[in-house]
Structure formats: C-alpha cells, structure tokens
TrEMBL record:
<protein>
    <submittedName>
        <fullName>Acetyltransferase, GNAT family</fullName>
    </submittedName>
</protein>
<keyword id="KW-0808">Transferase</keyword>
<dbReference type="GO" id="GO:0016747">
    <property type="term" value="F:acyltransferase activity, transferring groups other than amino-acyl groups"/>
</dbReference>
<dbReference type="InterPro" id="IPR016181">
    <property type="entry name" value="Acyl_CoA_acyltransferase"/>
</dbReference>
<dbReference type="InterPro" id="IPR013653">
    <property type="entry name" value="GCN5-like_dom"/>
</dbReference>
<dbReference type="InterPro" id="IPR000182">
    <property type="entry name" value="GNAT_dom"/>
</dbReference>
<dbReference type="InterPro" id="IPR050680">
    <property type="entry name" value="YpeA/RimI_acetyltransf"/>
</dbReference>
<feature type="domain" description="N-acetyltransferase">
    <location>
        <begin position="102"/>
        <end position="229"/>
    </location>
</feature>
<keyword id="KW-0012">Acyltransferase</keyword>
<dbReference type="Pfam" id="PF08445">
    <property type="entry name" value="FR47"/>
</dbReference>
Amino acid sequence: MTDPSQHPLDRAAWAALSTRQAGLALGDDRARRLAPEYGLFAAAADRSEESLARLAALVRETGPAALFEADPPRALEGVRITPGDPISQMVAENPAFPTVGFEVVRLGDEDADEMLELATLTRPGPFFSRTHRLGDFIGVREGGRLAAMAGERLRLPGYTEVSAVCTHPDFRGRGYAAGLMGLVTRAIVARGEKAFLHVYDHNVTAIALYERLGWRRRRAVEVVFLDPA
C-alpha cells in the first residue's frame, strides 16, 4: 500500500510504525499510531478512503494524535485537525562528533520522571511517560540533577531519529547539547544507519547548532494535531 517511489522520511511515522516499531503501535495495516503513553505519532498507510477512515476511527478510539508528514490529509471524519508550527526535517549529512569533556550517563526507567520533567520544561517536542523507551537515551547529571539529555525516537529501516535534545536552563552554555547529540548520532551511524531529526523552524538556536554539527535541512514537514471532534 505504501508508494515505493516515496522517500521513507517523507512519511517517517508510517515507515517506523509499520516496521521496526510496530510492537509499540496500535491499529492495523491501514492506519497505526504510537500507544498514547509513548507519543502522538500516527499515520495512514496511504491516501485511500479506507486508510483515512481507519486513521480517523483510531483517533476517535484512542485520543489525540499527530501527523508529521510532507502532505498530511486535510480532513478526517469525526476528527478536528489543528495545524502546528512549521517544522523542518534535517539529516546528518556530514556529522561532526564534538569532544565530550563531561561524564555521560545512560538513562532508563529509573530516570523516567526526571526525563519527563526536563522535557516538559524545555519543550524539545512531545514527550510522554514512556517516550524514553522508544530508543537509547543518555544524559548529564550535575549535583544529582538531570542537567541535559538526548536520545532516539522514530526508528525505520536504515534510519533513526535523534530527539529530545535539551538542557535545563540552569546548565546551558556548557556544550551538553552538542556533546550528547554527537554521541547519539555516532551510535546511529555506527549501526550503519542514517540519523535524522525534526525541529521547529522558530528554534533558530537549535538549527544553528545542528548545522554546525554537519546537519542539513532535507525538507519542510507539516505537523497537524488530531483530536476527536
């Protein structure tokens, strides 16, 4: 059902939820979404009437979701669609790996509450109680506090998304974001995959950092939020 001529990153959520992360998804071969405790990502298999109807039903059954696509549908029965802020999709074309002069810790279930608190404060993107289980996460602690973190989100064949790169305001300016992002990207590349990410266009500071680290803008991606009407 997926158009073979379409680049997988144009509909990265479907590519992930129908392959490597299918075990975390609700739905079927017509439409899928991440279980709500993991995230908002949803997608239909294609633009057929049957697939869009299944996507609409899935939102009505399971609650709010979001589409991150090059060309999302404009109407779904029984679903309210709200456009989000403009987003760019970037890929690690020639990634740089800055020298890390600080101690890095692996993050897991025992850190989940702090990770959610940090993401809620800094707003790198939607983050929920089990988002940290989507991939590997690392961080920095200062005085016992979680000062910064970065990790992985969508995983599809040949690609993994870098996500939740954020630093607590009390600890900015110490190179944590660049260092952690470099380590996450290095691990992805070492697996023979390509790294990508999504960033709000208004986050010019983050975009400038990513460009310095060898990332380039691939294309605009629309985000629309879906709510049962």
